[in-house]
Amino acid sequence: MEKQSITNKLIILDCTLRDGGYYTNWDFDESLVDNYLSAMNKLPIDIIEIGYKSPPKENYAGGHFYLPDFLIERIKKQTKKDLAIILNEKDVRTHEVEDLLTPCIEKVKLIRLAVAPQNFLRGIELADRVKNLGFEVAFNLMYASKWETEFPKKQQLELLNKTCDYFYVVDSYGGLFPQDIKTIFNYLKSGLTIPLGFHGHNNLEMALANSLEAINCGVQIIDATIDGMGRGAGNLKTELLLSVLYQRGTLEIDFDILIKIVEHFLKLKPKYNWGTNLAYMVSGSFSLPQNKVMEQVNKRYFSLNDIVREVTAEIDHVNKKLSIEVFKPTTSYSNVLIIGGGESAEIHKAAIHSFLKSEPEIPIIFASSKNSIIFRGIKNPQIHLIPGKELQRLKDYLSPEEIKNRSLVGPPSFEIFEDFTDLKFFKLSAEENYHFPGSVTEYCLKVAKAFKAERIYLIGYDGYGNLFNKAQKELFEENEIVFKHYLAEDFKIKAITPSEYNIENSSIYSFF
Question: Residue 305 has what pLDDT?
Fold first, then answer.
């Protein structure tokens, strides 16, 4: 295969400690950072980006999000390589720059600015203020896969030439292909005189191909991270870029050093599991925010089909949509049960069955299909909330005949794209006020309200103990907010199986 030529001295910037922080919350073990810096010193890496420099924010983030003076000093003592940090333009105002960056003078060479296209002029003002402090400035313009043709405009390119030292194309969604790279950089070279950079994400596993095409187009600075560790689907792998460039005779590498530092980071991978997957591929294909796609899939159980249909609005391949009635039961019930997915429902199912025998009409509302099997053979009315792919999940637990006897309730925007004429579908009213749109727990409470329930008993709302992952933690906090709102509206909500939620707790056994 013919080797691609590299006409300019290529600068390689490793941003593992910054982009990888999206998985570790910018906390890295000191010994790992020591090993990393030692490896960077011996590898052909030109610039090390060590994190964000951020004003105080509400939620916790570690040292490499704030980069206190002592941490920068510690890193500076361990390496002679040029250091970079990044400012997130949306979080930093120009009047904060001097206080934020003065401690970095003579320690950090390059300040990079992460700028959304709609904030271009604000980014220029920020760049000008940073430049006046004596730093080199890189303007990292995000979301390149959604840029219009010939963007930035010519007058914007002139502003970049006057203010910045580098201009970066950032493929935030990982949605670009090599031909897109060629088109973008050929246009930019017609108006920019400053060096160009490229930061690729790997949603579609195109980070290497796109970076090599960028190099062919004359880009002078390329980003990479160890094993691609970075936000969402991650980045170009440093070890992969170095290996390819070594094979092409453009630089020398000690592969023994390279493999050792890769092995150090791979020890983190079982915990954080970075890299691309189908949801990230969808986000890349349609230039969707990858964190939102993953949140919808992992936490809210939304269907990838629904996400794709919403973006493309191409539903010619599916059957005519059914007309869905709003859920308005004709019978009122003073008590209802809401069933979560916790293990307590299985543990206490004998007591639950006995309780329901004494309350044969009390409606059972399912927030999750997980415990639906426990209620097989129960005669009580059973209502399942089916946002996203919950209907598919329900089919894993119940037979088609069993599902026919259940009422299926979707969100206010609920649509069915297939002909399920034998099932009872409803949707929630769009006229209701939703405190936390998308919350399945709130949907269940709206169903309870439709029944005019006076008391709501919770089963299987256990919490997660000490085994929280990020999605579970967010869901727990979301439920807490929902309960707080509805308790303030005089809803009487009580957990009757063990629960960690901040609500009234009782016992299923106290009813006998």
Answer: 66
Q: Give the predicted TM-score (pTM) of the model.
A: 0.65
DSSP H helical segments within 372-439, as ranges?
Answer: 390-397, 400-404
Please say whether the dihedral angle defined by the alpha carbons of residues 458, 460, 464 and 470, taken in this order, is positive or negative. Answer: negative
* CATH number for the domain formed by residue range(s) 11-272: 3.20.20.70
Verify cis geometry, omega within 30 degrees of 0, for the bond prior to 411. no
pLDDT band for 1, please (50, 70, 90 cuts).
very low
Structure tokens at 281: 């591929």
Can you give the residue ranges of every domain in the chain?
11-272, 325-511
Specify whether the CB–CB gap between 319 and 417 falls below 8 A: yes
Question: What is the SS3 assignment for 316?
Answer: coil
Point out the least confidently predicted range of 22-36, 189-203, 369-383, 466-480: 466-480
The three-class DSSP label of residue 169 is strand
Rounded to an integer, what distance in angstroms lies between the CA atom of residue 237 and that of residue 245? 12
DSSP strands (E only) in 432-483: 455-459
CA distance 40 to 307: 41
Angle at which helix 290-298 crosses helix 304-312, to 10 degrees, equals: 140
